[in-house]
Amino acid sequence: IMNGVDLWGEEIFSYACYIIYTDKEGVVDEGVSADGKITWTFDRQHNSLRILGEGAIDKAVFTKAPYDVYKNEIKSIYIGEGITSIVDGAFEGFSALCEVEIKEGVTVIGSNAFKGTSVSTLVLPSTLTEVGEGAFGGIEKINDIVYGGTEEKWTIIKIGENNPALMGEIS
Length: 171
Fold this sequence. Notes:
Distance between the termini: 5 Å
Helix content: under 10%
Strand order of the largest sheet: 1-12-10-8-6-5-4-3-2
Number of helices: 1
Shape: globular
Number of strands: 13
Structural class: mainly beta
Largest sheet: 9 strands, mixed
């Protein structure tokens, strides 16, 4: 296992509806995909984004993601069980982003998905099979990586080029 890695054993939003809240425990904005399968919530009190539901976060979606307006405020992202993949460039340039937790179910993190962020804490699921080129580009070191699978499973994940934070010595 590489140093610093711990083991712990569609157009979805393009036509999304979203409602602004200010009275619900810090929730400022939330929305649901047109098909009702994926929801997102931005909590300004904690500067966190939660994405929950079922299915892939599709490639056509994130050029117009409704929560993109918070990209310089979001410090943490939680992607819940049931989400199966993260689109190329999904959170690219989210400059304040330092914590990412991805639950079981996600198999692919697309190219440049977290490029240009400040991720220092990363939780990855055992279901992960591929990390695209530059998914964590521009990040030299992730201080805490927690992986839900075994050492053997970690070694067979296809990690694309330009992910220096995920590359390193295997011990």
